[in-house]
Write a structure and sequence with these properties.
CATH superfamily of the largest domain: Trypsin-like serine proteases
Distance between the termini: 35 Å
Strand content: 25-35%
Oligomer: single chain
Largest sheet: 6 strands, antiparallel, barrel
Radius of gyration: 16 Å
Protein backbone atom coordinates (compact mmCIF):
# COMPACT_ATOMS: atom_id res chain seq x y z
CA UNK A 1 0.00 0.00 0.00
CA UNK A 2 2.92 2.35 0.71
CA UNK A 3 4.02 2.35 -2.95
CA UNK A 4 0.43 2.65 -4.15
CA UNK A 5 -0.42 5.85 -2.25
CA UNK A 6 1.67 8.24 -4.42
CA UNK A 7 0.10 6.66 -7.52
CA UNK A 8 -3.39 7.23 -6.13
CA UNK A 9 -2.48 10.81 -5.21
CA UNK A 10 -1.30 11.50 -8.77
CA UNK A 11 -4.45 9.89 -10.12
CA UNK A 12 -6.66 11.96 -7.81
CA UNK A 13 -5.03 15.19 -8.98
CA UNK A 14 -5.55 14.27 -12.62
CA UNK A 15 -9.21 13.42 -12.06
CA UNK A 16 -10.11 16.23 -9.67
CA UNK A 17 -11.43 18.64 -12.29
CA UNK A 18 -12.25 18.84 -16.00
CA UNK A 19 -8.90 19.46 -17.62
CA UNK A 20 -6.94 20.32 -20.70
CA UNK A 21 -3.43 19.13 -21.49
CA UNK A 22 -0.59 20.31 -23.73
CA UNK A 23 -0.53 24.09 -23.45
CA UNK A 24 -2.99 25.52 -25.94
CA UNK A 25 -3.75 22.10 -27.47
CA UNK A 26 -7.05 20.77 -28.77
CA UNK A 27 -8.90 17.50 -28.34
CA UNK A 28 -8.09 14.79 -30.90
CA UNK A 29 -10.88 13.35 -33.01
CA UNK A 30 -12.39 10.01 -32.00
CA UNK A 31 -10.42 8.31 -34.77
CA UNK A 32 -7.29 10.40 -34.33
CA UNK A 33 -3.85 9.96 -32.83
CA UNK A 34 -5.19 10.15 -29.28
CA UNK A 35 -6.51 6.58 -29.48
CA UNK A 36 -3.10 5.18 -28.53
CA UNK A 37 -2.24 7.69 -25.76
CA UNK A 38 -2.06 6.36 -22.18
CA UNK A 39 -1.35 7.76 -18.71
CA UNK A 40 1.57 6.37 -16.68
CA UNK A 41 1.71 6.89 -12.90
CA UNK A 42 4.68 6.04 -10.67
CA UNK A 43 5.15 5.08 -7.04
CA UNK A 44 7.14 8.31 -6.53
CA UNK A 45 4.10 10.40 -7.42
CA UNK A 46 5.05 11.34 -11.00
CA UNK A 47 2.86 10.99 -14.06
CA UNK A 48 3.81 10.81 -17.73
CA UNK A 49 2.37 10.06 -21.13
CA UNK A 50 2.93 6.95 -23.22
CA UNK A 51 1.63 5.46 -26.45
CA UNK A 52 0.37 1.95 -27.10
CA UNK A 53 2.37 0.45 -30.00
CA UNK A 54 1.25 -3.20 -29.59
CA UNK A 55 -1.54 -4.80 -27.53
CA UNK A 56 0.70 -5.08 -24.45
CA UNK A 57 3.50 -2.63 -25.28
CA UNK A 58 3.79 1.06 -24.40
CA UNK A 59 6.42 3.49 -25.70
CA UNK A 60 7.47 6.36 -23.43
CA UNK A 61 10.48 8.42 -22.33
CA UNK A 62 13.29 6.81 -20.34
CA UNK A 63 13.33 9.58 -17.74
CA UNK A 64 9.69 8.77 -16.90
CA UNK A 65 10.38 5.23 -15.69
CA UNK A 66 13.63 5.22 -13.77
CA UNK A 67 14.80 2.24 -11.63
CA UNK A 68 13.77 2.08 -7.99
CA UNK A 69 10.08 2.78 -8.55
CA UNK A 70 7.06 0.88 -9.80
CA UNK A 71 4.72 2.04 -12.54
CA UNK A 72 1.16 1.43 -13.62
CA UNK A 73 -1.08 2.42 -16.53
CA UNK A 74 -4.37 4.20 -15.87
CA UNK A 75 -7.09 2.27 -17.68
CA UNK A 76 -10.73 3.28 -18.03
CA UNK A 77 -13.46 0.64 -18.11
CA UNK A 78 -16.87 0.82 -19.75
CA UNK A 79 -18.10 2.70 -16.67
CA UNK A 80 -15.36 5.33 -17.23
CA UNK A 81 -13.94 4.62 -13.79
CA UNK A 82 -10.11 4.57 -13.67
CA UNK A 83 -8.25 1.39 -12.82
CA UNK A 84 -4.52 0.80 -12.44
CA UNK A 85 -3.11 -1.72 -14.92
CA UNK A 86 0.09 -3.54 -13.95
CA UNK A 87 3.36 -2.97 -15.79
CA UNK A 88 5.15 -6.30 -16.01
CA UNK A 89 8.55 -5.12 -17.28
CA UNK A 90 10.40 -1.90 -18.06
CA UNK A 91 13.19 -1.59 -20.63
CA UNK A 92 15.24 1.62 -20.74
CA UNK A 93 17.52 2.25 -23.71
CA UNK A 94 21.11 1.57 -22.54
CA UNK A 95 22.30 4.84 -24.07
CA UNK A 96 20.08 7.04 -21.90
CA UNK A 97 21.81 9.64 -19.71
CA UNK A 98 19.68 11.50 -17.17
CA UNK A 99 22.17 14.38 -16.75
CA UNK A 100 22.15 15.04 -20.49
CA UNK A 101 18.35 14.99 -20.62
CA UNK A 102 18.05 17.38 -17.65
CA UNK A 103 20.35 19.81 -19.46
CA UNK A 104 18.23 19.53 -22.63
CA UNK A 105 21.06 17.76 -24.45
CA UNK A 106 20.46 14.86 -26.81
CA UNK A 107 20.27 11.39 -25.29
CA UNK A 108 18.44 8.10 -25.84
CA UNK A 109 15.35 9.15 -23.88
CA UNK A 110 13.34 6.08 -24.93
CA UNK A 111 11.76 3.27 -22.90
CA UNK A 112 9.27 0.44 -23.33
CA UNK A 113 6.73 -0.93 -20.87
CA UNK A 114 5.40 -4.47 -21.08
CA UNK A 115 1.85 -4.70 -19.75
CA UNK A 116 0.28 -7.58 -17.89
CA UNK A 117 -2.79 -7.54 -20.16
CA UNK A 118 -4.05 -5.66 -23.23
CA UNK A 119 -5.65 -2.26 -22.65
CA UNK A 120 -9.37 -1.87 -23.26
CA UNK A 121 -10.48 0.88 -25.60
CA UNK A 122 -7.03 1.67 -26.98
CA UNK A 123 -5.66 1.20 -30.50
CA UNK A 124 -1.93 0.75 -31.11
CA UNK A 125 -0.17 3.29 -33.31
CA UNK A 126 2.48 2.50 -35.90
CA UNK A 127 6.10 3.24 -34.98
CA UNK A 128 8.55 4.55 -37.55
CA UNK A 129 11.20 7.22 -38.01
CA UNK A 130 10.97 10.81 -39.24
CA UNK A 131 11.57 11.72 -42.85
CA UNK A 132 15.29 12.37 -43.34
CA UNK A 133 16.63 14.98 -43.50
CA UNK A 134 14.55 16.73 -40.88
CA UNK A 135 14.52 20.42 -41.75
CA UNK A 136 13.35 23.57 -40.01
CA UNK A 137 9.66 23.95 -40.71
CA UNK A 138 8.93 20.20 -40.81
CA UNK A 139 5.52 19.57 -39.27
CA UNK A 140 4.77 17.21 -36.38
CA UNK A 141 1.86 16.51 -34.04
CA UNK A 142 2.41 15.90 -30.33
CA UNK A 143 -0.09 14.27 -27.97
CA UNK A 144 -0.15 14.06 -24.18
CA UNK A 145 -2.06 14.18 -20.90
CA UNK A 146 0.06 16.85 -19.21
CA UNK A 147 -0.92 20.04 -17.43
CA UNK A 148 -1.88 23.36 -18.98
CA UNK A 149 -0.84 25.30 -15.88
CA UNK A 150 2.69 24.53 -14.71
CA UNK A 151 2.68 23.11 -11.18
CA UNK A 152 -1.07 22.44 -11.17
CA UNK A 153 -1.73 18.71 -11.47
CA UNK A 154 -5.46 19.35 -11.65
CA UNK A 155 -5.01 20.97 -15.06
CA UNK A 156 -3.84 17.70 -16.60
CA UNK A 157 -5.38 14.37 -17.39
CA UNK A 158 -7.21 14.89 -20.68
CA UNK A 159 -5.64 13.86 -23.97
CA UNK A 160 -4.76 16.87 -26.09
CA UNK A 161 -2.83 17.34 -29.33
CA UNK A 162 -0.95 20.21 -30.93
CA UNK A 163 0.63 20.81 -34.32
CA UNK A 164 4.20 22.13 -34.10
CA UNK A 165 7.11 22.76 -36.46
CA UNK A 166 10.82 22.00 -36.20
CA UNK A 167 13.16 24.90 -35.48
CA UNK A 168 16.91 25.48 -35.38
CA UNK A 169 19.05 22.64 -36.74
CA UNK A 170 17.03 19.45 -36.22
CA UNK A 171 18.85 16.13 -36.54
CA UNK A 172 18.70 12.45 -35.73
CA UNK A 173 19.59 13.01 -32.05
CA UNK A 174 17.19 15.79 -31.09
CA UNK A 175 14.46 17.92 -32.62
CA UNK A 176 13.17 21.15 -31.09
CA UNK A 177 9.60 22.08 -31.91
CA UNK A 178 7.76 25.40 -31.62
CA UNK A 179 4.32 26.83 -32.19
CA UNK A 180 4.28 27.89 -35.86
CA UNK A 181 2.70 31.20 -34.85
CA UNK A 182 4.72 32.22 -31.79
CA UNK A 183 7.95 30.53 -32.93
CA UNK A 184 8.89 29.97 -29.26
CA UNK A 185 9.23 33.66 -28.50
CA UNK A 186 5.85 34.07 -26.77
CA UNK A 187 3.34 31.79 -25.07
CA UNK A 188 2.05 29.24 -27.55
CA UNK A 189 1.39 25.58 -28.19
CA UNK A 190 3.75 23.12 -26.56
CA UNK A 191 4.34 20.27 -24.14
CA UNK A 192 4.20 20.72 -20.37
CA UNK A 193 4.60 18.64 -17.17
CA UNK A 194 3.09 15.20 -17.68
CA UNK A 195 3.47 15.27 -21.48
CA UNK A 196 6.93 13.68 -21.21
CA UNK A 197 6.97 10.39 -23.07
CA UNK A 198 4.10 11.48 -25.27
CA UNK A 199 4.11 10.38 -28.91
CA UNK A 200 5.27 12.67 -31.68
CA UNK A 201 3.56 11.92 -34.99
CA UNK A 202 4.46 12.66 -38.59
CA UNK A 203 1.94 12.26 -41.39
CA UNK A 204 2.94 9.62 -43.91
CA UNK A 205 1.15 7.85 -46.77
CA UNK A 206 -0.13 5.18 -44.37
CA UNK A 207 -1.39 7.84 -41.95
CA UNK A 208 0.09 9.28 -38.73
CA UNK A 209 3.20 7.40 -37.55
CA UNK A 210 5.00 7.81 -34.21
CA UNK A 211 8.47 9.14 -35.04
CA UNK A 212 9.60 10.46 -31.64
CA UNK A 213 8.81 11.00 -27.97
CA UNK A 214 8.50 14.22 -25.98
CA UNK A 215 11.52 14.71 -23.68
CA UNK A 216 11.35 18.24 -22.23
CA UNK A 217 9.85 21.69 -22.60
CA UNK A 218 10.62 25.34 -21.90
CA UNK A 219 8.72 28.58 -21.68
CA UNK A 220 9.08 31.34 -24.28
CA UNK A 221 12.68 32.24 -25.20
CA UNK A 222 14.03 29.24 -23.29
CA UNK A 223 12.74 30.35 -19.89
CA UNK A 224 11.50 27.84 -17.34
CA UNK A 225 7.94 26.72 -17.99
CA UNK A 226 5.89 25.59 -20.97
CA UNK A 227 4.64 26.93 -24.27
CA UNK A 228 8.05 27.71 -25.74
CA UNK A 229 10.28 24.90 -26.98
CA UNK A 230 9.27 21.23 -26.97
CA UNK A 231 12.28 18.92 -27.02
CA UNK A 232 11.79 15.66 -28.91
CA UNK A 233 13.89 12.49 -29.09
CA UNK A 234 13.41 11.17 -32.65
CA UNK A 235 13.28 7.40 -33.09
CA UNK A 236 15.69 7.37 -36.06
CA UNK A 237 18.51 5.72 -34.09
CA UNK A 238 16.29 3.72 -31.72
CA UNK A 239 13.77 2.01 -34.01
CA UNK A 240 15.84 -1.21 -34.14
CA UNK A 241 16.17 -1.35 -30.34
CA UNK A 242 12.41 -0.92 -29.99
CA UNK A 243 11.76 -3.76 -32.45
CA UNK A 244 14.32 -6.08 -30.83
CA UNK A 245 12.97 -5.47 -27.33
CA UNK A 246 9.41 -6.01 -28.55
CA UNK A 247 10.40 -9.36 -30.09
CA UNK A 248 12.11 -10.44 -26.86
CA UNK A 249 8.82 -9.79 -25.09
CA UNK A 250 6.83 -11.66 -27.71
CA UNK A 251 5.31 -8.58 -29.37
CA UNK A 252 5.31 -7.91 -33.09
CA UNK A 253 5.35 -4.33 -34.38
Amino acid sequence: MKNLLPMLTSLALLLAAPADAIVGGGAPSAEGVGRSVVTIVGSRGNFCTGALIAPKLVLTAAHCVQPGATYKIVEYGADRQPRLQDVRSVAIHPGFNMQAMAAHRATADVALLQLGAPLAGKVASTVGAPQIPIVAGSRFTIAGIGVTVRGDGKSGGTIRVAGLIATGRPGTLQVRLVDPVGQGTRDGLGACTGDSGGPVFEDKQVGPVIVGVVSWSTGPNGAAGCGGLTGVTPLTLYRDWISQTARQWGSAL
